[in-house]
Design goal:
This protein has 395 residues and is an alpha/beta fold. 44% of the residues lie in helices and 14% in strands. The strands form two sheets. The chain has a seven-stranded parallel β-sheet with strand order 4-3-2-1-5-6-7, sandwiched between helices. Strands 9-8-10-11 form a four-stranded mixed β-sheet, with helices on one face. Helix 9 crosses helix 14 and helix 13 packs antiparallel against helix 14. The chain is globular, with a radius of gyration of 21 Å.
Amino acid sequence: MNKIALLGSTGSIGQQSLSVCRFLKIPVAALSAGTNVKLLAIQAHEFKPKLVAIEDEKLYPALKTQLKGLDVKIIAGKGASCDAAACDGADAVINAILGIAGLKPALRAIEERKTLALANKESLVAGGTLVMSAAKRYGVPVIPIDSEHSAIFQCLRSGLRQDVKGIILTASGGPFFGRTTDELKNVTRQEALQHPNWRMGEKISVDSATLMNKGLELIEAMWFFELTPEQIEIVIHRQSVLHSAVEYLDGSIIAQLGALDMRTAIQYAITYPRHLPRGNGRLSLTALGSLTFEKPDYDTFRCLSHCISAAKSGGLAPCVINGANEQAVELFLNGKIRFLQIAELVGAALDNVKTKNSTSLNDIEEADRMAREYILSNYRFKGHVTSAASNQKGL
């Protein structure tokens, strides 16, 4: 990649992506963010992109003031990240936007025939058929950035695609591994944000605590690698060193291991197919001593079960659970519901939000809206899901 456009530059993955660009001296043609004007301006002064975009239009004056004297085009408003994805000076786009908001910029990058390095899992969960069919139509590579999907992407290079039996998708188990449902009734926001291995943003940290993140990654893997839910085995691996593996028809299992550093996967997406030096410490297997693998507790962590059900249902069901989860996690982070209510509400939305058997962009956006509205209409402050209004009407 000669130059990149980085979408979601002020988030955790965005900042780590810039760390990789800094180390490899890769030019940045465009930066986009949602609301973090201060950090976006700092990044722009360092990397001097051609274009800087912010989604909140009200923040345009503040951004313009902080970028005074810099030779840069500034755009603001809904859709600004799409324009950043289409920046003329960029050969590739890193999409590190959080949530379904990353779907349209992903499609725009593909339409502009730019290599897409994808950290935004929700764009595949909600709109996988659109993204991957567009990638095939325009002949655009889509390279995963999530450590698990990057691992699978790398392991698939060891054999022929038709010889793949399935994949093993590893999960850390989050901060509440081994706890019972009763022990999770009163967990706090702060406890849910304490991931044992990774430092991440708030939303993804909560998703890891509920195991929703792993369910979303299962759906993402189906689209990335053309797999069925039955071909994906989820395994709890507390050390998070074996990032995932591929099983072949002859029983061989090829795994990718690495240190707990997202920048390794980010760099591989940028430098693919090269494994260039990164200056990080070497992983020592002898220092680790042992690695453990266990089955998930589907009864306690029901978000994972809901995702598998949605994956098997297909259509817009994954979009519904994604929108429902985004809304439920926001309620939890704001102290409106308890931790266990996230799974309860997501499951209720999956059962009650009725959609068409369609995957157009308009229908995806409508299903996402309906799922969010269902959650907002059917939660009770720090209580339990209400008896629920009548089922949502179809699209």
